[in-house]
């Protein structure tokens, strides 16, 4: 805790650069160095250093080593760190817009997820801005599939299981299928599986490979439930403390990192699926009956989301469906 406080203090102190000093930012992430998301973050940090002529140095802290995954957004908002990455849906209890991309079966392909990202960007940026945070870019994980320690032919097979929940949407899905929601972060999931704390869960093909979930889970159903996005955000005061050329460099590189991240995510999804199968998992891409049942849940959850999201939320859904 003391080390974290010292690092955060140094980060804040670095926000007011002089003409002769290099500004230094710490960038915490809750994900491992082997994930494409963190590798893209490192690319972003390296390119910002180049584009700013060395005036801004961003040091990446993966594996929840500086802040736990669910602490990062608040750390940026409160000024404990200048910049950070978090999965948007983890903050869905704060505002409906954070949970938009985790509505099941609303956007189930990369093309649909990209359209949803574009039509919701102004509202999402505004929500973050009201919290003193500037949105730099978002990158999706591959579509969420269903992992299970036992075969699943229908939702009935999920009843009574212990289902991992990492956001309000996954907790709600667990309730709908009659499972017991268990809140656990991705980094702790292998241990949860080893101890029997978790038996079923929704996550991407990427997580299955990166966290070696295939060692304990043998069934993967490619239901394409949704594509959750990670957001890279910066404290607005920290951003404003940069000179204009450095601000422009950050924004430009962020746009490039977004484009690069979306492309890598889609490319790697197919690779991850093949690897899960090669590691001995039963990978089912034809689970149509299960998809139909889950889609009914998705329709109900869309209605629930619209009730909380108001006119702005309705406008986003209407624009998405055009």
From TrEMBL:
Keywords attached to this entry: Signal
NCBIfam families linked to this entry: TRAP_S1
Residues making up the signal peptide according to the UniProt record: 1-21
One family name in Pfam for this protein: DctP
Top-level lineage group: Bacteria
Name the record gives this protein: TRAP transporter substrate-binding protein
Organism for this UniProt entry: Ideonella lacteola
